[in-house]
TrEMBL record:
Transferase recorded as keyword: no
Protein name in the entry: ABC transporter permease
GO cellular component: plasma membrane
Main location: membrane
Species of the source: Methylobacterium platani
Length: 443
């Protein structure tokens, strides 16, 4: 698919389409900007009416928290080009300060309602973002990444020492129902907590999108691409980096605050490298650099975390394999793949890809099924042998002690991989054909 760049939104077709004179009424432009946010708000409001179970409400609440967290990370990596291994520091500190604030407000009966608590988390994230950002943003690239990892380890270790603030391994708890009621809402039922998270998710998403449209947002992109040129134009790259860093920390603190409200607890796990790794996975899987990418990644990662953890004990291994596959074969993430097909859809030639895609889907599913069977049987033999070698995989009984399941699973994995490799040239040819047809229509 070497012609992908030719049909990407920033490529030849987009330039040709953009060169045509067009007149768009001012009102139409405003509607086009507002309509997606109104649609997002409608989805957030209607979702609990469609998915009414307690599990669904909990999952949607987690998705809203992860969306804010992933978008804040995208401000750092996708917009400014700063790879951080310690973004959970600001998420966790926002959660801890929120829990302490909730306890102080409840104990002293202060007139502060629960919906304002994310402001506390955001301010905590911003404050520590200023402190740590002044140190870490002096350099970009590998140096910044290593400093961020060092800060993460420093704060994580400090959480075990400052037990009076962090609560040690048990953490600090709070009770959200003891705070001042707003409109007679106790925020005891999960549905009320969901709408609180959804409201803050929408507010933060709008704010972060608005930042990308400002001169600061454009300068962040410029620093990511060519900091030397930005400095030549009279701007200080470090000042731009620290501004983006602080804003990113602010919204990460809001996400941590929402998590503290949802779970009514903050512990050292909020600050750990694992939490930083999860948001990195979400951003990359969805698509770094695009605004909608981290949103998609946050939803997918949360869904997989909840569902896979109930199905298998090695769900984190599958996360790692998915991350490797995305980086190797689709560096633009899920959103990048969708955007690549946009010009073909607009030109009406995307249907030409369907036969080739369906042809490749069969071998891909066979290969994945074989690989999953091998992984699960290996885990059973190496880790869970004491529980017996008999197991069930999607309702199919297997005995890892017998050679036949290994032969069948290995044949499926290898055979599916070879068949997929044989089919890929047809997929490439179909892509070239659809691309050429799209160019002709948009020429």
């Amino acid at each position: 698919m070497s012609d992908l760049a030719d049909i990407a939104p920033s490529g030849t077709l987009a330039q040709q389409a953009g060169s045509r004179p067009s007149i768009r009424p001012r009102g139409a432009g405003i509607v086009a900007q507002v309509l997606p946010w109104l649609l997002a708000a409608a989805i957030l409001v209607a979702a609990p009416l469609v998915f009414t179970s307690g599990t669904a409400l909990t999952m949607m609440s987690l998705m809203g928290i992860m969306v804010v967290f992933a978008l804040s990370y995208n401000m750092l990596l996708g917009q400014t080009g700063l790879l951080s291994f310690g973004h959970a520091v600001y998420y966790g500190l926002g959660a801890f300060f929120t829990v302490h604030a909730m306890n102080v407000v409840a104990l002293n009966r202060l007139p502060l309602p629960l919906p304002l608590m994310p402001v506390v988390g955001g301010l905590a994230g911003l404050a520590f973002g200023i402190v740590f950002g002044a140190i870490s943003t002096r350099r970009a690239g590998t140096v910044f990444a290593m400093i961020s990892l060092g800060i993460a380890e420093l704060v994580s270790s400090g959480s075990n020492i400052l037990r009076s603030f962090f609560g040690g391994e048990e953490g600090i708890t709070a009770n959200r129902t003891k705070m001042l009621r707003l409109f007679d809402l106790s925020f005891g039922p999960q549905i009320q907590v969901y709408y609180l998270i959804a409201a803050w998710c929408l507010i933060c998403a709008v704010a972060m999108y608005a930042i990308t449209r400002t001169p600061l947002g454009r300068l962040c992109n410029a620093v990511r691409e060519n900091p030397e040129r930005v400095e030549f134009l009279g701007y200080e790259p470090q000042a731009i980096r620290i501004a983006a860093f602080c804003l990113s920390a602010l919204f990460a603190g809001v996400a941590g605050s929402l998590a503290a409200i949802n779970f009514e607890i903050a512990n050292s796990a909020y600050l750990g490298v694992h939490q930083s790794g999860v948001v990195l996975l979400a951003a990359f899987i969805g698509g770094i650099g695009t605004f909608v990418g981290p949103v998609v990644g946050a939803v997918v990662v949360t869904l997989l975390q909840v569902s896979l953890s109930d199905l298998t004990e090695v769900w984190q291994l599958y996360f790692g394999l998915l991350f490797i596959a995305i980086v190797m074969f689709a560096p633009g993430g899920i959103a990048g793949l969708a955007l690549m097909h946009g010009p073909l859809i607009r030109a009406g030639t995307a249907h030409r890809l369907l036969p080739a895609y369906l042809l490749a889907l069969g071998p891909l599913l066979v290969m994945l099924a074989g690989a999953i069977a091998l992984i699960e049987m290996a885990f059973r033999m190496l880790v869970r042998a004491g529980d017996g070698t008999e197991m069930s995989l999607i309702g199919i009984p297997l005995d890892a002690a017998h050679i036949l399941p290994w032969i069948v699973a290995g044949a499926m994995a290898v055979g599916g991989g070879l068949a997929l490799r044989a089919v890929l040239p047809r997929v490439t040819a179909a892509w070239h054909e659809a691309s050429a047809a799209a160019k002709e229509k948009l020429a």
